[in-house]
């Protein structure tokens, strides 16, 4: 639903301009009014309040009644060369929130709400059920993905076997295993500064006997749980599968990263976690995954239609809100793996060679939100080297591998 103040935007005169910031039209007269509208279920005000809460402490602001955000205004404008309409809400000059406006005919995609079953964490049963649906659909229906390197037979030197009791894992040397390893997952994560359990020369044999999951950091435990939920029996985690105090092992394994990620069946990505202890799970407001209800305009001076409001930058906003994708080496992990499941602040994102989806749009991003398919598009060497930060700090061997990979994918 929309509150009365938000409904007024689509009634009376159509206050649409071709110039950004040309006019500011009154919206709610106070911050408390927006809070009340949000609590009553207004789709727009709920998002305005969430956006503002990321910038300031709402309780402190209410107490102080800052004149800069005493009330809200809106501005409806069109970018003529793109044919797109935008609605910008402002609190004074410092805080604003943009929404894209699109007619029913322009939207070009299924418009179905799923938030009622989203769950209040990104590890909820509903969230993982959606992840399983993406995963199974990709395996069964995506021809581009099923013919990817993930169908190859080259295995990492070591993998973690997830025991059925879900309390232990065992390090498996794949060449020593009698039964063939069919498929495995990988984990992309930020190590952080904290000390974590690592594979070393001294504990190699004990890792083969078994590792209690209680010894592992939260991110590892939850990644193992996700793999188990998806019926993936093995997982590769760098700190547990590469001998950390052996230069020889590092040298051997570092040149195999293309095969490790390229032949995995799924890469689980701790996208917003800055260290291994933060985990994959995040508390969330399921209402933020709801789609805006269709709005029937009632303008007196313009053609009327059904309209939808949405955040066209939802993909980038979710992906790049955390530290993981700022790590240069993760770019290779993301490109090489045929499928990626991102655990973000408010929802799960899915990436494969045929589809980009999120829980808000589980059947695929609508046309206006779509970005170029990151996993499918070719990457040029020149563009890669223009972004020097991507390989700063990497050793010469890693740079050579990266260069070779970009040559082969171009």
Distance from first to last alpha carbon: 48 Å
Main β-sheet, spatial strand arrangement: 10-8-7-11-9-12-16-17-18
- Total number of domains: 2
Backbone shape: elongated
Q: What share of residues are in beta strands?
A: 15-25%
Number of strands: 18
As a whole number of angstroms, the C-alpha radius of gyration is: 24 Å
Structural class: alpha/beta
Mean pLDDT: 83
Largest beta sheet, briefly? 9 strands, mixed
Number of helices: 16
State the low-pLDDT regions, or none. 148-152, 379-400, 402-410
Helical proportion, percent range: 25-40%
Protein name: Heterokaryon incompatibility domain-containing protein
Pfam families: HET
Domain Heterokaryon incompatibility: 184-333
InterPro entries: HET
Describe the fold and architecture.
The protein is an alpha/beta fold and 410 residues long. The chain folds into 2 domains: 4-107, no CATH class; 117-284 and 316-377, no CATH class. The chain contains 16 helices and 18 strands. The chain has helices at 4-7, 31-39, 43-53, 58-64, 104-107, 125-141, 143-146, 204-209, 218-229, 238-241, 247-254, 257-262, 314-319, 328-336, 381-386, 396-409, and strands spanning 11-12, 16-17, 25-26, 73-79, 84-91, 95-103, 158-162, 168-173, 185-188, 211-212, 234-236, 266-269, 295-296, 298-299, 306-310, 339-343, 348-352, 356-358. Strands 10-8-7-11-9-12-16-17-18 form a 9-stranded mixed sheet, sandwiched between helices. Strand 7 and strand 8 form a beta hairpin.
């Amino acid at each position: 639903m929309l509150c009365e103040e938000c409904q007024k935007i689509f009634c009376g005169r159509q206050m649409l301009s071709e110039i950004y910031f040309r006019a500011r039209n009154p919206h709610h007269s106070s911050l408390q009014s927006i809070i009340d509208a949000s609590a009553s279920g207004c789709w727009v005000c709920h998002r305005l309040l969430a956006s503002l809460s990321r910038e300031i402490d709402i309780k402190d602001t209410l107490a102080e009644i800052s004149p800069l955000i005493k009330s809200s205004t809106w501005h409806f404008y069109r970018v003529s060369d793109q044919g797109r309409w935008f609605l910008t809400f402002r609190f004074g000059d410092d805080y604003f929130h943009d929404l894209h406006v699109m007619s029913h005919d322009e939207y070009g995609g299924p418009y179905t709400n799923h938030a009622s079953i989203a769950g209040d964490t990104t590890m909820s049963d509903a969230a993982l059920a959606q992840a399983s649906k993406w995963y199974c659909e990709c395996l069964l229906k995506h021809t581009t993905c099923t013919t990817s390197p993930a169908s190859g037979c080259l295995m990492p030197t070591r993998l973690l076997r997830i025991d059925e009791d879900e309390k232990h894992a065992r390090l498996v040397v794949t060449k020593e295993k009698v039964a063939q390893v069919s498929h495995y997952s990988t984990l992309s994560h930020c190590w952080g500064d904290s000390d974590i359990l690592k594979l070393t020369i001294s504990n190699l044999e004990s890792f083969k006997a078994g590792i209690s999951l209680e010894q592992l950091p939260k991110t590892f435990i939850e990644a193992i749980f996700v793999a188990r939920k998806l019926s993936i029996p093995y997982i590769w985690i760098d700190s547990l599968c590469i001998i950390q105090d052996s230069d020889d092992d590092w040298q051997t394994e570092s040149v195999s990263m293309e095969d490790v990620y390229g032949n995995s069946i799924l890469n689980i990505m701790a996208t917003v976690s800055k260290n291994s202890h933060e985990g994959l799970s995040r508390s969330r407001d399921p209402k933020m995954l709801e789609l805006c209800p269709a709005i029937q305009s009632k303008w007196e001076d313009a053609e009327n239609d059904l309209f939808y409001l949405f955040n066209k930058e939802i993909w980038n906003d979710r992906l790049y809100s955390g530290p993981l994708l700022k790590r240069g080496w993760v770019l290779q992990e993301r490109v090489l793996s045929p499928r990626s499941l991102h655990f973000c602040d408010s929802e799960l994102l899915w990436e494969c060679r045929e589809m980009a989806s999120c829980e808000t749009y589980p059947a695929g991003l609508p046309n206006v939100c779509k970005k170029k398919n990151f996993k499918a598009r070719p990457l040029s060497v020149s563009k890669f080297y223009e972004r020097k930060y991507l390989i700063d700090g990497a050793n010469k061997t890693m740079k050579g591998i990266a260069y070779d990979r970009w040559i082969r994918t171009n």
